[in-house]
Amino acid sequence: MAEMKQGLGWAIGVGVVGGLVAALAMNQFQALAAGAFGQSGSNDDPATVKAADTLAKATTGEPVTQKYRETAGSVVHYATGAVLGGLYGALAHERPEAALGLGVPFGLATMLAVDDVAIPAFGWGPAPQDTPVATHGYSAASHAVFGLVLEGVRRLALRVV
Question: What is the mean pLDDT of residues 113-134?
Answer without folding.
Answer: 95
